[in-house]
Amino acid sequence: MGRGKIEIKRIENNTNRQVTFCKRRNGLLKKAYELSVLCDAEVALIVFSNRGRCYEYANNTVKSTIERYKKTSTDSANVCPTPEINAQFYQQESKKLRQQIQMLENTNRNLLGEGLGSLNLKEMKQLETRLDRGISRIRSKKHEMILAETENLQKRELELEHENTFLRAKIAEAERLQELNMGPGPEYAFQAYLARNVLQLNLMEEGPSYPRLPEKKNLHLG
């Protein structure tokens, strides 16, 4: 079986990225050496790692090859008009952007489960791993949101309970004040009852007050 197609993009795993860098750097240096020997070409190669380490190869010297490159570039710039250089630059940039857009569209389609026929087994496993990580992050975020919502609801429940207790106390106070405003209390009613009984007894002892008739005189005959 032939080697499967490898998607050209940044390797996320640090260990895999470092191993790939070492392998491909050595292969690139080897190819530069072979090109210089087989074709009698002047070759200079400079590679900087992501940690800032420099790796170079030159069959002459790197400095002399760079000076030759600068001279050649300057001569070419004097011959080639500036508008044409700008047009070529923008065409290359446009091509790169179209390629990046195409790669992103393919990646999105793959994440949606579409266009999987062009992927090999290794790429399918990588895609599955990405999806698992994404789902794990989504679930974690959803769990955090549920916990936060639950805490807010519990706080709101306590606030409502406090408000309910406060309102009950206010209602009880209002009812007590209403009872006091509607009439006298029991002590006052009892005093009024006693006063009425005393008044009745006094009236009974005095009797009814009728107008007195004139006294009859006894008539004596003979």
From TrEMBL:
<dbReference type="InterPro" id="IPR002487">
    <property type="entry name" value="TF_Kbox"/>
</dbReference>
<dbReference type="InterPro" id="IPR036879">
    <property type="entry name" value="TF_MADSbox_sf"/>
</dbReference>
<protein>
    <submittedName>
        <fullName>MADS-box transcription factor</fullName>
    </submittedName>
</protein>
<keyword id="KW-0805">Transcription regulation</keyword>
<dbReference type="InterPro" id="IPR002100">
    <property type="entry name" value="TF_MADSbox"/>
</dbReference>
<keyword id="KW-0238">DNA-binding</keyword>
<dbReference type="InterPro" id="IPR033896">
    <property type="entry name" value="MEF2-like_N"/>
</dbReference>
<feature type="domain" description="K-box">
    <location>
        <begin position="87"/>
        <end position="177"/>
    </location>
</feature>
<keyword id="KW-0804">Transcription</keyword>
<dbReference type="GO" id="GO:0045944">
    <property type="term" value="P:positive regulation of transcription by RNA polymerase II"/>
</dbReference>
<dbReference type="GO" id="GO:0005634">
    <property type="term" value="C:nucleus"/>
</dbReference>
<dbReference type="Pfam" id="PF00319">
    <property type="entry name" value="SRF-TF"/>
</dbReference>
<dbReference type="Pfam" id="PF01486">
    <property type="entry name" value="K-box"/>
</dbReference>
<feature type="coiled-coil region">
    <location>
        <begin position="87"/>
        <end position="114"/>
    </location>
</feature>
<dbReference type="InterPro" id="IPR050142">
    <property type="entry name" value="MADS-box/MEF2_TF"/>
</dbReference>
<comment type="function">
    <text>Probable transcription factor.</text>
</comment>
<dbReference type="GO" id="GO:0000977">
    <property type="term" value="F:RNA polymerase II transcription regulatory region sequence-specific DNA binding"/>
</dbReference>
<feature type="domain" description="MADS-box">
    <location>
        <begin position="1"/>
        <end position="61"/>
    </location>
</feature>
<dbReference type="GO" id="GO:0003700">
    <property type="term" value="F:DNA-binding transcription factor activity"/>
</dbReference>
<dbReference type="GO" id="GO:0046983">
    <property type="term" value="F:protein dimerization activity"/>
</dbReference>
<keyword id="KW-0539">Nucleus</keyword>
<keyword id="KW-0175">Coiled coil</keyword>
